[in-house]
Specification:
The complex is a heterodimer of chains A (494) and B (251).
Chain A: H1 2-13, H2 16-50, E1 56-58, H3 77-85, E2 89-103, H4 106-109, E3 123-128, H5 133-148, H6 172-178, E4 208-213, H7 214-219, E5 227-235, E6 241-254, H8 259-264, E7 265-269, H9 270-276, E8 285-290, H10 293-311, E9 316-318, E10 324-326, E11 331-333, H11 334-337, H12 339-377, H13 379-387, H14 392-423, H15 425-436, H16 457-483, H17 487-492
Parallel strand pairs in A: 3-7, 4-6
Antiparallel strand pairs in A: 1-8, 1-11, 2-3, 2-5, 2-8, 4-7, 5-6, 9-10
Chain B: E1 20-33, E2 36-49, E3 53-58, H1 64-71, E4 79-84, E5 87-88, H2 94-104, E6 105-108, H3 120-131, H4 134-154, H5 170-182, E7 188-192, H6 200-217, E8 220-225, H7 228-232, E9 236-241, E10 244-246
Parallel strand pairs in B: 3-8, 3-9, 6-7, 7-8
Antiparallel strand pairs in B: 1-2, 1-4, 4-5, 9-10
The chains are: A alpha+beta (494), B alpha/beta (251).
Chain lengths: 494, 251
């Protein structure tokens, strides 16, 4: 009984204890907050890092001779059939990627060319598939719903739970279109991004509509409804290269937030791009969205490679035992594209956790020194307790209990504060920024509009458990020393 | 401080059937000092009857305090036995001896030795808290508390029940310490110069309480003192010199 009573009494009457509790409080709280924000940053960076990459990308070699039997198919159809058969596949869509250069409105670009796309860097032309059944159905229903006054949520390609339902949703364009544009030139209907704008008044044959990055459009000095020219080079069947140029019309813009994408990508319907390239390529890759990438992305990749190789759809060779081995690099996960960066991020996370755990050690030391001080200060009390019948063990547990209270209170309040802090970090940041008049989190610098934070229960449990255990461990030494105080010496000393 | 040397009552002669609370035989105690050993007690025999009060007088460094610590089970003898209530206390295990000390011996020190963070009632209750487990203490907390307050009120401390030691005068502190020592009626009370730090009037007040309680409760008292007049109030007096009990003090 006296252990609990005395430890609590000492805790309350010796103010230095609150320094110990405060130390653990700050350490646990800060650790939880920092690691949660780090986790949030890393998670968001991972998303940024991934950028427009889809879960899996299938890019078979297509350089065989179509007339000779060794050639691979130039149609996406057979591959797609095999892909969608797999139940781990959410959706799959082919797309065509090519490069070209765009010339803008000469008059308006004069002053703008210099800074923006004046360097005539290559622009990625991406032909995406929009003629998917559910998308067409929703798009067809849109005018009717609008006429009836029912608001149409642009849910095309998305199941109610937010997962991709339609192949189109697997494309980066769809995600990009959902973001609010800054200059207000979104496509009229995200379900039908390549509809000709109403303001477009063609003279002669109407040009094919394209959607381009906001910054690119500005750089080219264009507005919605303007025509502009795209130039590209296409290999001809006889082995030469021919240039091709065609006029397109701006149907709208998209914004991803990633500079490279917003400045260098032009989307159009796959059929249009194929036509532009005179049928040189039908598709360049098949993008695959899986039901759960983390669970079976890698397994799916291996299975698909194997299946394609058996069906003779991708380039493959035979190994020594005569088994078919697909050449690498034809089926890739998004991580394959970003391998080194992902490794760096994971490494950084571990490093951060290890370094920050030192805070815990420091707070443990605080408790250690406080208790050591208290044992020295309380030598006489220890002697008195021994004289009235306390065992060394009882004295040890009394001091251990003081450490326990320090650990318990510090960890408890620290954990609560850490979780709250991590959850409401944006409000705190805004309040602090206003208070001291300095922008703490510059939203221009990052792609995210708010400080990301991800409170992981396991991390919190580890930190709280670690703080508690290390404090208790640190208080064990002074407690053990308290038990070894000679009551006689303590009583004799005045 | 030096011991007064005056004649006093002779030690009672051992005779017949006696009810002994304390029986120590051949107590020696030596401390290592460097590579030599310093022997403080050279074979002390001492007996205390139940209900008897004995004064222990001796010069400084005669080994009184060491003897007191050995008899009070705070310090182990180098050799010899201490029988408390008929049990060889130094043969017990450490935790059992601690519990035994809690029940058998009450201490009153010269410097009171109260716990500074606890108020008067809590200080008196401390031995009971140590004695009982959490459940057992909870069950009788009310009763124990009431008894502690009653005892302190009886000692004239009704205004001081929830005061901390630092808020009490020396005499008040010693009365609280006495209440703590007496709280659960130990058969043996050991007092080490209980009035050594008090002025005459307050000291006298404490002594009156000490002796009246000792008589009333019928407990044995072993009192270390320098004061011959105080020793005279005890049933008998033992003289101690150079680590031995002697018949008469040297002039």
């Amino acid at each position: 009984m006296y252990r609990l009573f005395l430890s609590w009494r000492y805790l309350l009457t010796r103010r230095t204890n609150w320094i110990g509790v405060g130390g653990i409080f700050v350490a646990t709280g800060a650790l939880i907050m920092i690691l949660s924000i780090m986790a949030g940053f890393l998670e968001s960076s991972r998303a940024m890092l991934r950028g427009p990459l889809s879960d899996l990308s299938i890019t078979p070699y297509q350089d065989g001779d179509p007339d000779d039997g060794s050639s691979l198919t130039r149609e996406p159809g057979p591959l797609l059939d095999l892909v969608v058969e797999d139940e781990r596949v959410e959706s799959a869509v082919p797309r065509l990627v090519w490069y070209g250069q765009a010339a803008g409105n000469a008059r308006r670009t004069q002053r703008m060319m210099v800074g923006a796309s004046g360097d005539l860097s290559a622009i990625q032309l991406i032909g995406v598939e929009t003629r998917t059944p559910s998308l067409l159905a929703e798009a067809a229903a849109a005018p009717l719903l609008a006429a009836l006054g029912i608001p149409l949520e642009p849910t095309a390609g998305r199941a109610p739970d937010g997962s991709a339902r339609d192949a189109f949703a697997a494309t980066d364009l769809f995600a990009a279109l959902e973001r609010d544009s800054l200059v207000g030139m979104r496509v009229a209907n995200p379900l039908l991004p390549f509809a000709r704008p109403r303001t477009y008044d063609p003279d002669g044959r109407p040009a094919a509509p394209v959607v381009l990055g906001e910054q690119l459009m500005n750089g080219l000095g264009l507005v919605r409804g303007d025509e502009f020219e795209i130039v590209t080079m296409v290999p001809t069947p006889d082995g030469k290269v021919a240039s091709a140029n065609r006029r397109f019309v701006v149907a709208g813009t998209f914004r991803t937030g990633a500079h490279a994408l917003d400045l260098e990508v032009i989307y159009m319907a796959r059929s249009e791009l194929e036509d532009f390239l005179s049928g040189h390529l039908r598709y360049s890759e098949i993008l695959v969205q899986t039901t759960d990438y983390d669970a079976h992305g890698q397994a799916l990749k291996a299975d698909l490679e194997d299946r394609f190789a058996r069906a003779g759809l991708i380039a493959a060779g035979l190994d020594r035992e005569g088994r078919i081995v697909p050449y690498a690099g034809q089926v890739r996960t998004w991580e394959d594209f970003r391998q080194s960066l992902i490794g760096a991020i994971q490494n950084e996370r571990v490093l951060m956790a290890v370094m920050l755990s030192l805070i815990l050690v420091v707070s443990g030391f605080t408790v250690f020194s406080i208790l050591t001080m208290m044992v020295t200060e309380k030598r006489r009390d220890i002697g008195i307790l021994a004289a009235v019948g306390a065992t060394p063990r009882g004295i040890m547990s009394t001091f251990l209990l003081i450490g326990f209270w320090n650990a318990f209170l510090g960890t408890l309040f620290g954990t609560i504060a850490g979780i709250l802090g991590a959850t409401y970090i944006n409000d705190i940041e805004i309040w602090l920024s206003n208070l001291i008049g300095v922008q703490i989190f510059d939203r221009q610098v990052y792609y995210f509009d708010e400080i990301p934070s991800d409170v992981e229960p396991m991390t919190v449990a580890w930190i709280a458990g670690g703080a508690f255990a290390s404090t208790l461990l640190f208080s064990a030494i002074p407690a053990w020393r308290a038990a070894r105080v000679d009551p006689l010496v303590a009583l004799r000393n005045q | 401080m030096s011991a007064t040397t005056d004649t006093s009552t002779t030690p009672a002669a051992a005779s017949g059937e006696r009810d002994l609370i304390l029986k120590a035989r051949g107590i020696t105690k030596s401390f290592p000092i460097g590579d030599r050993t310093l022997e403080v007690l050279h074979g002390v025999d001492i007996e205390l009857e139940r209900g008897e009060s004995v004064a222990l007088i001796g010069t400084s460094g005669a080994g009184k305090s060491t003897l007191l610590h050995v008899l009070g089970l705070l310090d182990s003898p180098t050799s010899g036995t201490v029988e408390l209530d008929g049990v060889d206390a130094w043969a017990m295990s450490k935790p059992r001896r601690a519990a035994f000390r809690n029940i058998e011996v009450g201490f009153v020190f010269q410097f009171y030795h109260l716990l500074p963070e606890l108020d008067a009632v809590e200080n008196v209750l401390m031995p009971s808290m140590i004695r009982f487990g959490r459940g057992a203490y909870r069950k009788r907390r009310k009763e124990l508390k009431a008894r502690a307050r009653e005892l302190l009120v009886g000692f004239g401390l009704e205004q001081r029940l929830d005061h901390r030691p630092e808020q009490l005068s020396g005499g008040e502190r010693q009365r609280v310490a006495l209440a703590r020592a007496l709280f659960h009626d130990p058969p043996l009370l050991i007092a080490d110069e209980p009035t050594g730090n008090l002025d005459e009037t307050t000291g006298e007040h404490v002594l009156q309480l000490l002796f009246s309680e000792q008589k009333r409760r019928g407990l044995s008292l072993l009192l270390v003192t320098h004061d011959d007049r105080l020793a005279d109030r005890c049933d008998r007096t033992l003289f101690m010199r150079d680590g031995q009990i002697v018949d008469r003090p040297l002039q």
